[in-house]
Fold this sequence. Notes:
This protein is an alpha/beta fold. It has a single domain, classed as TIM Barrel. The chain starts with 8 loop residues before the first strand and ends in an 8-residue tail after the last helix. Helix 1 (39-49) runs parallel beside helix 2 (82-93), helix 5 packs parallel to helix 8 and helix 9 (241-254) packs across helix 10 (290-300). It has helices at 39-49, 82-93, 111-116, 130-133, 147-166, 181-186, 201-204, 206-219, 241-254, 290-300, 313-321, 332-336, 340-345, 359-362, 377-380; strands at 9-11, 14-16, 20-22, 55-62, 98-104, 121-123, 142-144, 171-176, 225-230, 258-262, 304-307, 327-330. The chain is globular and about 55 Å long. 34% of the residues lie in helices and 14% in strands. Flavin mononucleotide (FMN) binds next to strand 4, helix 12 and helix 14.
Amino acid sequence: MPVTPFDPFTINALTLKNRFVMAAAATLYSADEQGIITNEEIARINRISAGGIGLFINGAVTTHLSAQTRPRSCMITTDAGVLQFKKLTDTVHKNGTKIACQLCNSGIWAAAFQKTLGKEAIGASLVSDGAYAARTDFPDNFHAATEDEIAGIIRGFTSGAARVKTAGFDAVEIHAAHDSLLSQFLSPLSNRRNDRWGGSVENRSRIHAEVIRAVREAVGPDYPILVKLGVQDSIAGGLTQKDGIAAAQTCAGAGADMLEVSVGLAGADVMKESVLLGPITKIEQEAFTRESCRAVRRATGFPTIMTGGIRSLDLIEDILAAGDTDLVGLCRPFIREPALINRWKSGDRKKAACISCNMCLIRPKGHELACVIEDGDGEENSGKIQTS
Ligand SMILES: Cc1cc2nc3c(=O)[nH]c(=O)nc-3n(C[C@H](O)[C@H](O)[C@H](O)COP(=O)(O)O)c2cc1C
Ligand code: SF4
């Protein structure tokens, strides 16, 4: 019998009711000035977690003060937010849905905010040339991490993971995609080091292994550890898929339970080839990480979440039946249609209404992460934007 999207799936000690995952979506105003998740954000997540998905992955939460990217970044650097996170996990669990928390260090992308504090951000290397640095928004106040700083960065993930577990999350996900700090270490474009953290892919993924081992120590053997790994940069001179797969093997060997496969850097010029690929109007444009995910799953023998551009139930059935992944991650479709999975389950198989225009990301309407396209525009893909 082929696997179907509504079959359960077990990751370590965690069983999900189906194969649908809400991929992480960090929002600008998810936290208050202390970095604690707001009641409004919990209510928004509640709507999505009640819509039929098996696993909700909470958007990037910052693990280190040097990586704070804005005044209201959601933080897990102290115990202060644990109680409110417990409220979130209790809320989601009432819907029969599991919830993971994504832990992130943004590295150099915290530079603009750090500058307002009179501080520098921390990256893998001080890069100021080449395609990587040629972006209009490329920061100028960061430095290459010292050995002590790398140790502190690893500790940030460890203490963050312990708090995630205390707060009742069912799993932790380590962000190592989209030009976050671990991605900055892995990519030869951003890592020019010639010490044990740079050079070969083994060295460039050493920090991944160290973070995973330390997190495993903190959460114990049964607790699911997911890693969202960018397995290729889709840009000349960047991370190749061959090296991405080697890094995936490193993550698996270090004790991760599952890999969420993503591709591409997240900088402005390369966005069109990664997170912001779009619009997605034809089925051939969907599932843009399928080939990479299949390659990672086959090379590592490890369970995967395939995330990126997945919009159609027919295609999801095909992907699962082909054994190209174990779970599918969708992000923007649930921003537009929180109850998408319940709709599909009820027999309405029409594809997700999200047209992948990215306006919810580029031009949010208010403080809440929400779709800004008028109802009815999805089918025609007209891309009409609400102006209010
Ligand atoms: C508003 C928004 C916020 C996002 N925030 C995160 C994040 O915090 N962490 C992450 O790994 N990816 C983040 N992503 C990327 C998504 O998880 C996903 O990889 C990407 O949108 C492709 O999936 P999709 O085509 O189903 O939207 C974000 C995407 C959007 C649209
Ligand atoms: S604004 Fe709406 S249609 Fe556009 S990407 Fe976001 S959720 Fe999808």
